[in-house]
Recover the amino acids of this structure.
């Protein structure tokens, strides 16, 4: 890609070989991310509709299973962060992930919901986590282009979502879920081929597995394989028992929160302690953002399905195509925002991590307040105009661009090398716990009845939107007040005088 030729022109921190590997490795990871995201986009946009229409389950059950899918998606990324880099290399973990995703989609093609979701989730956990870890290790901690790289990566990932949404919308209209899942299964072969072709560029750096003696690696791989099998078997049962699953994820999240505090305390240097405390605060704030965001594949998708006038010039727009508003804005806005940020910083403007988090909270909070307000202008049959959704998605998407890419990039910026696998997993786990909170709010909108009449459900949806939006605006205010403190914790210091090592 052309922008990669200029990416590091201001830095002399890499050798020529490192720059060569960085350019090829980053470009190939973008392609792998694109195709890996495609099948996830199909499930993300279609799962709740497949459960309600294809499997004939009610809305509340469908929303709960979808919440479990999202929660386990991100929880398993945390588990993958523990396993990958210790029992497997990152590149082998991506191979495992692609294979498991394909198997999962094949079981969904057979209408085996719980087995299919279990295999798919395990695969997705490894794929997404390790792609980000591979991308992270191409760039030094003090390379300011790291944020730009992750913004481009996020934009490309959403291009995969865009393709998935349009294809899903077509098959939704003809109600052919089997063929849709078969296409999804086949699509996982492409990232597998790409990974194997560029395999030599993805050698692990500074991981536990890479430091093992060759004689020990086989044993570790066997232990890792046993762990993956056991996790898959347990997941089949856990998805069937959502209440227990959600409790376990909450307990796991509390444990990870305490682990983050422990790691923050035991660092040898003051700089690393301060950076990890900043990482902890930003992680907690991100949970609030993702609670609203994960309402999209649950209550918000059903809101679009039943409460929005999707008739555009006589054509009924599928709910998945409505979601493409978000992805189109990200595909265009991601690179654009990265360029704007770079120019502002060249002019001396400071755009810090906490500032970006604060803006993101305000934008998505106002987006949900806006959606709640829209129900006051519903038609006589209870449907709101399509433009309300477009404006709401615009606000939410801009907020997403401010927080999502930098949430991954800040792992490399604030976390020591030996903790990056775990902290990358914890960063993704925040969305998992957010999905559980979002499901709690979704129950406010969906209630216990199977009623879908918008005249009846609009007040319930409005209540959910107002509560979620209002709480997030308050969080945005708190985040704004904390900006000076967090900026002080993560300020740049003389890295030559400090050691990144753990105790």
């Amino acid at each position: 890609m052309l922008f990669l030729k200029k990416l590091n022109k201001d830095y002399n921190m890499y050798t020529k070989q490192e720059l060569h590997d960085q350019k090829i490795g980053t470009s190939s990871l973008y392609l792998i991310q694109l195709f890996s995201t495609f099948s996830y986009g199909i499930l993300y946009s279609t799962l709740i509709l497949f459960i309600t229409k294809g499997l004939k389950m009610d809305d509340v059950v469908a929303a709960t299973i979808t919440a479990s899918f999202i929660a386990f998606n991100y929880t398993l990324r945390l588990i993958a962060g523990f396993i990958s880099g210790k029992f497997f290399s990152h590149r082998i973990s991506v191979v495992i992930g692609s294979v498991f995703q394909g198997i999962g989609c094949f079981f969904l093609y057979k209408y085996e919901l719980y087995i299919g979701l279990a295999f798919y989730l395990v695969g997705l956990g490894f794929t997404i986590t390790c792609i980000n870890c591979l991308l992270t290790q191409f760039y030094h901690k003090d390379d300011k282009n790291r944020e730009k790289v992750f913004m481009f990566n996020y934009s490309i990932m959403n291009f995969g979502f865009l393709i998935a949404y349009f294809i899903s919308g077509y098959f939704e209209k003809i109600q052919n879920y089997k063929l849709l899942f078969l296409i999804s299964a086949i699509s996982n072969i492409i990232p597998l081929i790409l990974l194997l072709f560029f395999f030599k560029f993805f050698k692990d750096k500074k991981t536990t597995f890479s430091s093992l003696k060759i004689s020990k690696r086989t044993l570790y791989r066997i232990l890792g394989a046993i762990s993956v099998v056991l996790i898959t078997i347990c997941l089949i049962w856990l998805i069937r028992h959502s209440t227990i699953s959600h409790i376990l994820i909450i307990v796991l999240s509390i444990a990870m929160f305490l682990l983050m505090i422990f790691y923050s305390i035991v660092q040898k240097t003051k700089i690393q302690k301060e950076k990890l405390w900043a990482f902890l605060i930003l992680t907690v704030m991100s949970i609030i953002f993702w609670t609203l965001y994960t309402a999209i594949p649950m209550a918000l998708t059903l809101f679009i399905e039943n409460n929005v006038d999707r008739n555009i010039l006589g054509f009924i727009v599928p709910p998945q195509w409505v979601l493409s508003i978000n992805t189109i804005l990200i595909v265009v806005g991601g690179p654009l925002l990265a360029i704007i940020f770079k120019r502002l910083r060249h002019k001396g403007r400071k755009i810090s991590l906490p500032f970006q988090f604060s803006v993101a909270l305000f934008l998505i909070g106002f987006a949900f307040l806006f959606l709640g307000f829209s129900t006051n202008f519903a038609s006589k049959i209870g449907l709101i105009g399509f433009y309300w959704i477009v404006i709401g998605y615009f606000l939410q998407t801009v907020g997403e661009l401010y927080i999502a890419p930098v949430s991954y990039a800040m792992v490399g910026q604030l976390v020591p090398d030996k903790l990056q696998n775990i902290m990358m997993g914890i960063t993704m786990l925040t969305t998992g716990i957010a999905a559980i909170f979002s499901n709690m709010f979704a129950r406010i909108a969906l209630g216990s009845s199977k009623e879908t009449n918008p005249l009846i459900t609009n007040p319930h949806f409005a209540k959910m939107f107002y509560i979620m939006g209002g709480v997030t605006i308050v969080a945005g205010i708190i985040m704004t007040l904390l900006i000076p403190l967090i900026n002080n914790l993560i300020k740049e210091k003389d890295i030559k005088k400090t050691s990144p090592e753990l105790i």
Confidence is low (pLDDT under 50) at residues 1-11, 492-503. The first strand starts at residue 311 and ends at 312.
